[in-house]
Amino acid sequence: MDPIASTLILCSPFDIKNDKENGLLVFDTSLLQKQANLPARFLWPHEDLVYTQDELKETPIDLKGFLNGDEKATILAVSQIRAACVNHGFFQVTNHGVDIHVIRAAHDEMDAFFKLPVSRKVSAKRKPGSVWGYSGAHADRYSSKLPWKETFSFGYDYVNGPELDLVNYFKSVLGKDFEETGYVFQKYCEAVKILSLAIFELLAISLGLDGSYYRKYFEDGCSIMRCNNYPPCNQAGLTLGTGPHCDPNSLTILHQDQVGGLEVFANNKWQVIRPFPEAFVVNIGDTFMALSNGRYKSCLHRAVVNKERARRSLVFFVSPKEDKVVRPPQNLLETRKYPDFTWSELQEFTQNHYRADATTLQTFIDKFLSKKTNHTKP
Ligand SMILES: C=C1C[C@]23C[C@H]1CC[C@H]2[C@]1(C)CCC[C@@](C)(C(=O)O)[C@H]1[C@@H]3C(=O)O
Ligand SMILES: O=C(O)CCC(=O)C(=O)O
Ligand SMILES: [Fe+2]
């Protein structure tokens, strides 16, 4: 029997015969680590495992002046953002306006969640086709190149009515003792959403647009909040926490703990992003690359794991409202790089047909939109 299959059956709190899907969700590293070799499903190909110690040493962008309305500071921030987005699509921000206590509280809640027994985490499991919920190594979705991580994701501001706020979501999936967790994440998401709109303002100015252009476009947008836990791995050099990919959404705002493991592909090589507690890590995603008509790069990145310490990150993925058309503004449209699409079409593609990697957007455009055109031909 495949070693991982036996581990998963051994540690499953469910009857594997009638609950194969739940059994496969269990990612219990204390048991997985007892095996002499890393289970084959966690192995990644050589080319994805290129080791690096190079560090991307770009000064974080200080947002203080811009947030206080200082024109000179805004001009500087705009030019730093433009340079980073044209080059690789990645930058860090400090003095971002998100209270450090709110950030710490969100880390504490995330830590408490991941320390729960597996059976409890699985009660909030992700449903097929949905991005929300708990997932262990995405083992219910993929059979190879499994990421060495567990994740817990939930939507923020779906504008579907107050009954869907995070306090109620946490209570409904984890029970009444998670009400406080819901409040903490509600506050965290509110603050990071405000930050995202400020960054969209800088992005708009940097592309020669009115400062409010993307702010208005994303005001009613939908976001996904994700907690990532990367446990230590005895054979860390053979696997990855998150494989090389570009985020399919528009903008990603990440806060990592002090362990380190995030790497971006910049200047033709993988480079380490040293953790910096005061900073948020920001990257451009595929949908914003399309909205800028290809001027700004969707950042290729990955997360490596290590032998000693668990690593955690809080990730806020910002997207337009599901059915809003993704089309660049008129003055960026000399030669159109991508056809119109909607976030819900791209999201559906990543959930049901394709695992996000370095070429998600182009593959989506090539395969799906050409199919769509064929279907609509008379
Ligand atoms: C629409 C989405 C797909 C992913 C979750 C959201 C936003 C980012 C995507 C993801 C994180 C990109 C890397 C690969 C992925 C499979 C992951 O490792 O978690 C992606 C998400 C997903 O499908 O769960
Ligand atoms: O955890 C990290 O540092 C990166 C995670 C990531 O890239 C993602 O969740 O999309
Ligand atoms: Fe990512």
Q: How is this structure best described in words?
A:
By secondary structure, the chain is α+β, with helices and mostly antiparallel strands. It has helices at residues 3-11, 20-25, 29-32, 64-67, 71-87, 100-114, 118-122, 166-174, 179-206, 213-219, 286-291, 343-352, 360-376, and strands at residues 61-62, 90-94, 133-136, 150-156, 222-230, 242-245, 251-256, 262-266, 269-272, 280-284, 301-303, 311-319, 325-326, 341-342. The strands form three sheets. An eight-stranded mixed sheet has the order 1-2-10-7-12-5-4-3. β8 (262-266) and β9 form a beta hairpin. α8 (166-174) packs across α9. The protein is globular and about 55 Å long. The chain binds the ligand C=C1C[C@]23C[C@H]1CC[C@H]2[C@]1(C)CCC[C@@](C)(C(=O)O)[C@H]1[C@@H]3C(=O)O, 2-oxoglutaric acid and fe (ii) ion. Fe (ii) ion binds at residues 245, 247, 252, 301. Fe (ii) ion (FE2) is lined by residues 245, 247, 252, 301.
